[in-house]
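Hi U.,

Before I forget, here's the chain from the pilot set. I'm dumping it here mostly so it's searchable later in email.
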Amino acid sequence: MRTVRGPDGRTYLLVKQSSDASRVRDPETGESPLETAARAVPESVRRILVAVPTERGLGLLVDLVDRGPLPVVDLLGAYDLCESDLHGLLTEFRVAGLVAETTVYGERGYEATDAAREGVELLRANGGRE
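Structure:
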């Protein structure tokens, strides 16, 4: 690898180069410039953006932030999601650190994590800007 200077004047590590494109990384972090740019967004918001695939999924997460923790049976009864879709969303959220399994009224349930609450709060606070 060698260093190159980009059009912005910054120095990058050249990872791969072809006749029409180059792949570069930040020399300090090893991240791509796009990953570095993404770091300008608060971490809790990035988690939500990466983990939530649809508006229904976002609605589920927001509802868990607002009303949780909730038992799984309540989640199944409250939404127009089949068990498989609900399980898939909750799994994605768990992997992203947005929800955690818990016990609610003696039943298996889920609750929003601090990262989910913070991310939803930040999204709401900036939601009116377009």
